[in-house]
Amino acid sequence: MASSLAVFHASFLVILLSIACINAQLYTSFYSSSCPNIFSTVKPVVQSAISREKRMGASLLRLFFHDCFVNGCDGSLLLDDTNSFTGEKTANSNRNSVRGFDVVDGIKSAVEKACPGVVSCADILAITARDAVVTLGGPNWEVKLGRRDSRTASLSAANNNIPPPTSNLGSLISKFSAQGLSAQEMVALVGAHTIGQARCTSFRDHIYNDTNIDASLAAERRSGCPRTRGSGDGSLAPLDLQTPTSFDNYYFKNLVAKKGLLHSDQQLFSGGSTDSLVKAYDTDPSKFTADFVAAMIKMGDISPLSGSQGEIRKNCRRVN
Questions:
Q1: Residue of 66, 193, 206, 263 marked active site
Q2: Which among 232, 221, 231, 216 is positioned nearest to 262, based on CA atoms?
Q3: Mean pLDDT, contiguous 10-residue spans, the chain (320 residues)
Q4: Gap between the Cα atoms of 132 and 139, Å rounded
Q5: Cβ–Cβ < 8 Å for 158, 66
Q6: What does pTM read for this prediction?
Q7: Is 66 one of the catalytic residues?
């Protein structure tokens, strides 16, 4: 009887360990033994890319957002289309917009030399996003790791889940809520627009059709973004009018002054439920950075693949 009980306990322990492996939690020291130099390998590649082009910092951060909002943080955004596979790069919010894939390729190459077959592309995106923020003067945080890479992607989910620049406040709150993120976390995360630029196609409707925009800003932006579609579509303008290459709280100061570049930006401060949050971040930069860090960590926890799920891609652009 005792022997049978011991066997039962041993079997039950194996089952528990298997479940724990499948549902493994992310943690900051995941690669401490298998790839101890992961952070020192990624950081200089990110810094070099941003030193060549400041805008790249925002682009690398944005890759992590757009990946996590489609079936979780699984590196699916990085997959290229093939004759038999359609990825997410041609989704409405990604086409002619997301960029920095070549930088990710360079990071992956460096990581593969240091630790072959160990670090996922999904984790590389998470580390790269943090390093991009830090390089542009933003806050630092410990990145939780242990994600694995998806073997699939979803164009339809990318089209449906990522909020377009025409979104109203209700839609923004709803789409972030669908990812388990609160309205406060949404406002903090959208604060990433304190860096980077947007194409004319993203802000044309706001500068010509909306009334909740500073008149001088609208006039200035119209000079480089004609009303006629197809003309000047690729013209760029900074999302943060004041300090577009520094990670700070000036984005929120611009919103209070009705100088948000996108319709969706100004929705955060336009007489709605998030006005008080914008005001708080406008006056207290430390609150913004603290809330941004907490929200980034939470976003990084969205539906990761772990344990034996997915794979560790050798090339971020294609499955093994």
A1: 66
A2: 221
A3: 48 42 75 98 98 97 98 98 95 94 98 98 98 98 98 96 97 98 98 97 97 97 94 95 96 98 98 98 98 98 96 97
A4: 10
A5: yes
A6: 0.91
A7: yes
